[in-house]
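Closing statement on the flavin-adenine dinucleotide sub-project.
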Amino acid sequence: MSGTIHQFDAIVVGGGGAGLYAALALSQNKVPTAVLSKLYPTRSHTGAAQGGIGAALGNKEEDHAEWHMFDTVKGSDYLADQDAVEIMCQEAVETVYELEHLGLPFNRTPEGKIDQRRFGGHTKEHGKAPVQRACFAADRTGHMILQTLYQQCIKNEVKFFDEFHVIDLIVQDKVCRGVVAYAVQTGELHLFHAKSVLFATGGSGRMFKITSNAHALTGDGMAIALRNGIPLEDMEFFQFHPTGIYKMGILLSEACRGEGGIIRNNNGERFMERYAPTIKDLAPRDIVSRCIYLEVRDGRGIGGKDYVHLDLTHLGKEVIEKKLPDISDFVRTYMGIDPVKDLIPIQPTAHYAMGGIPTNFNSEVVVDENGTALKGFYAAGECACVSVHGANRLGTNSLVDILVFGRRAGLSMANYCKETEFSPLPSNSEEPSRALLNQFKSGSERIAPLRSDLQSFMMDLCGVFRTEKLLKEALTKVKTLKERSTNLTISDKSQVFNSELLDAVELLNLIDLAWVTVESALARTESRGAHYREDYPKRNDAQWLKHTLASLSNDSVKLSYKPVKITKFQPQERKY
Ligand SMILES: Cc1cc2nc3c(=O)[nH]c(=O)nc-3n(C[C@H](O)[C@H](O)[C@H](O)COP(=O)(O)OP(=O)(O)OC[C@H]3O[C@@H](n4cnc5c(N)ncnc54)[C@H](O)[C@@H]3O)c2cc1C
């Protein structure tokens, strides 16, 4: 491994929606930019996003950015920072039109406007009834976003380093100076010297056993930030999506319910009517996931088992084939059943990290309770926490978040690069990465059993329902795993396409993230959004209307807190 050095004003780590929009904005501002991605960019998880992107265009019925803002804040269980939410909901509208002008093939209304459909938690007039706000391209919205942005980046001469796996961030004297990356094809370490670095590395759902997340979603960016002394925000909030394919976790988009799909228990009952009488199956995901577990616990799972049914049969063949084509294929391929005629077995699946690297609304990474920015370091997309989703994200709001704050990151970086000189690279910047990669040469622990242990106990002990007892058990287990992981080994010692080596690196990342997740969850003695404590079932604003910041130092987790920004909407009881 030798250290080849590259120099670009701006380095974007991640070729998903957040990274590509940032790179596009940078290149449009003539900033020399490179995108590093461990995957070929169009294979990023953004491409798996099915249902849609929320924006109050009002094409099908009256809608306003302010209603979108209200729904997002209420959906977040009042933990979102309202100044950031307001920006997101306003800029969502121009972002969708910009995507349209960049060539994204949205579905159309008969008059030729961008079509829109319903999604969970999105309502008109502050909660009166569901509203059609999600803009979509069939159930391939994310795929279309990625293709559109990638083409535009190529056109604007963004330089791509595909299959470059970032291992570390280079920071000295409170200035970020670049990254260290491992070239998957050759096994060499490369140093990328930059004035500014953006992490847009996506989520960490692979921490859990049943998940909708792709294999690559191992929270690398978050873990690297954590190891560089940056605290992670609100990691106790991890969203479970109600409609994962039973046992596999593959996602069946909320668009199924947006188009009129219904969830039923063993008695055939549409049970969400009991829990959320106004918006029923379109209640936010944290609520629907909990209700599924409650039905199962009360013996109303299908055949007494741990799943329920998603019923699309009343929608008719045409709606299913035209508006949910990919989902129909998944159901046919993976379950061997026909959604036009059959009920689909579903269970909640780990889906989305609300927490992440703390940023301000210009996507600068902030490192303490006072919002101090780390010079030259930016984060956007699912790995960041700005925080627009608070304790629970609404469907379609991630695509809005990654694009709005991805673009903002690109613009802030462009300004910063124009007024800043390169800070010198510290000598031996690649040493910590080299040590990390070399540690697997000896040792006796194998990757697979440790990973499956982690995924199982996180699912069982730190999942939809939590208690002090379960979380303490999880903490003991994660600490044991951390210890065991220092003795990890790999059998493939080759330099070329050594995916086992990277599996080991990714496992270490997941273990650190699981640790801060469990500690943050144990400390928060209330229930809010996706964090549900059976021993503290009520939300407690007096004590807990605040963001968690968890940092890792000297092999222990330290927690601190910062206030939530409340502008327009005072916290209320969350009823649907
Ligand atoms: C099945 C599914 C369906 C979804 N549907 C919707 C939807 O309809 N609407 C919605 O709003 N949201 C949806 N979401 C959520 C949304 O798609 C994601 O939150 C969002 O796309 C994340 O985008 P991103 O740009 O942050 O990261 P990603 O698209 O995940 O991209 C991450 C990038 O980082 C790179 N990377 C990661 N680690 C490294 C490393 N160490 N070195 C180099 N590169 C690295 C990867 O190669 C990749 O290019 C869905 C999610 C899933 C899983």
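The first helix runs from residue 17 to 28. With this model delivered, the sub-project is considered complete and its resources will be redirected to Aim 3.
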